[in-house]
Amino acid sequence: MDLSLIPKLKHADSNNFFLLSGPCAIEGEDMALRIAEHIVKVTDALKIPYIFKGSFKKANRSRVDSFMGIGDEKALKILRKVSETFDVPTVTDIHEASDAAMAAEYVDVLQIPAFLVRQTDLVVAAAETGKVVNLKKGQFMSPESMKHAVIKVTDSGNEQVCITDRGTMFGYQDMIVDFRGVPTMKHYAPVVLDVTHSLQQPNQSSGVTGGRPELINTMARAGIAAGVDGIFIETHFDPANAKSDGANMLHLDRLESLLTNLTALRNTVNQLK
């Protein structure tokens, strides 16, 4: 993947990690713009290449009464407004092959959810849009098996692909990141660490996913030290009342300190190469 080819991406030559960050789901225009404004200010100061993240819908929910979105077109238009307002690229996840062309009209990066990364028609449909494709590693997949997901994209004529690790299932209710997988997957494509989803505690009896947000700093630092190319962080100014994945999100007020520390650590890692 060539960062310089992503529209509106700034600081691509800074030799810093790149960042995918924003709320789990688009809940409305005001919240999306508020979160984006804060992250853009921080990433510009630290020269971090930044892509705004927000799901236009949430299809893989634990319960039928879980929040799924505010409407596809409405949410996608908000993502476009974020991009136009702050001059940044955007990423959203897609769940069906028919989503690919629709979402590609509004965003710059199409993300394949971890549960769906083996769905060939979905991956190929995303690749054929010509957009960057971010493949979430399945919680049930080995790092080595992600080679085949990447090949599905490149065989479709699209070299703009990256892999995001979001942990591997450990028992029923925990996720573990095996950092041995980072150098393995970097042979196939740039690697991103999804810090917040890696700290999820899924399959709770309540039907509401839990999390360990107090470990975000530890997980993110470990990812940078292990040599990841990018970091993925979901953040919100009111995680307790977020409509999706609030239990493992980073409070927006804590993002600047975290990114400042990660940038310093990245500079050290760069000197060790």
Describe the structure in brief.
The chain is α/β, with parallel strands linked by helices and 273 residues long.
Number of domains: 1
Q: How many β-strand stretches? A: 13
Which homologous superfamily in CATH is the superfamily? Answer: Aldolase class I
Q: Helix proportion of residues, in percent?
A: 25-40%
Q: Kindly report how far apart the N and C termini lie.
A: 21 Å
Biggest sheet character: 8 strands, parallel, barrel
Reading side by side through the largest sheet, how are the strands ordered?
A: 1-2-3-4-5-6-9-12
Q: State the low-pLDDT regions, or none.
A: none
Portion in beta strands? 15-25%
What sort of overall outline do the alpha carbons produce when their principal axes are compared?
globular
The CATH C-level class name: Alpha Beta
What is the residue-mean pLDDT, rounded to a whole number? 93
The rounded Rg comes to 17 Å
The name of the CATH topology is TIM Barrel
CATH architecture: Alpha-Beta Barrel
By secondary-structure content and strand pairing, the structural class works out as alpha/beta
**Helix count from the secondary structure assignment:** 8
Pathway: Carbohydrate biosynthesis; 3-deoxy-D-manno-octulosonate biosynthesis; 3-deoxy-D-manno-octulosonate from D-ribulose 5-phosphate: step 2/3; Bacterial outer membrane biogenesis; lipopolysaccharide biosynthesis
Keywords: Cytoplasm, Transferase
GO molecular function, one term: 3-deoxy-8-phosphooctulonate synthase activity
Family: Belongs to the KdsA family.
